[in-house]
Amino acid sequence: MPPDQPRLEIDDYLHAATRDNTRRSYRSAVRHFEVEWGGFLPATADSLVRYLADHAGKLAHNTLKQRISALGQWHVDQGFPDPTKAPVVRKMLRGIQELHPAAEKRAKPLQLEALEQTVAYLDQQRELARQQARFGDLLRHTRDKALLLIGFWRGFRSDELARLEIGRIEAVPGEGMRIHLPRTKTDRSLKGSTYKTPALSRLCPVAAYLGSPQKTENKAR
User: Fold this and answer.
1) Contact between 142 and 156 (Cβ < 8 Å)
2) pTM over 0.70
3) Which of 75, 123, 143, 171 has a CA that sits 20 to 30 A from residue 134's CA?
4) pLDDT at 216
């Protein structure tokens, strides 16, 4: 290990194995069970069944599954037997799904016309910021435009867009770009994935990325 590299402890590796948003959802589930419902941890299978019964039809089935999963992970982390694996808990979840079916809600996709309007607005704001020498706003609007177009054409999730790094992006004007994500939600092997995006005649993510003042500044270093 290089002398200037800080030594990582066991807790650092264990912490890195779980995404931040997953940890937040787990904490929220535990708080809901203990504080809002009044449950006790470690829990029993019977208490989990009562918890599910009280919220059946009030919370979405996927939400209940996520909270039961979080409670199960809490027991595993604390060294207790996992009551969520009990057959009665699994049977209860199936029964709730059967008696309270709900159509999955999907967000409407961003339409091309709305995309054009948003990009036009960002371009107007960029030009206004440039004229008024508000360079922080100029960088922000330029970044937002690039992220919007990359996310639209590649179908990236918001958390994937937030993890984009300049050092993992290769772009060639008029040709295309390669984007490497070290990890994605569907990447169970943690090998990372590389995505290609071609240059387009309009609403081009490649041009938006290369036109960023932040990119120019990094290339000059």
Assistant:
1) no
2) no
3) 171
4) 36
Please give the average per-residue pLDDT across 180-199, as a whole number: 77
Phi/psi for 95 (5° steps) reads -65, -40
What confidence tens digit (pLDDT) does each residue in 72-83 have? 999 998 899 999
- Say yes or no to pLDDT of 89 above 80: yes
Domains of the chain, residue spans: 10-99, 112-220
The CA–CA distances, whole Å, from 68 to 54, 72, 87, 158 equal 14, 6, 13, 25
Task: Give the domain 10-99 fold.
Answer: DNA polymerase; domain 1 (1.10.150)
Contact between 213 and 142 (Cβ < 8 Å): yes
The span from the first CA to the last CA of the chain, in angstroms, equals 27
How do 169-172 and 193-198 pair as beta strands? unpaired
The C-alpha atoms of residue 133 and residue 125 are separated, in whole angstroms, by 12
| Helix 45-55 vs helix 87-99: crossing angle, to nearest 10 | 10
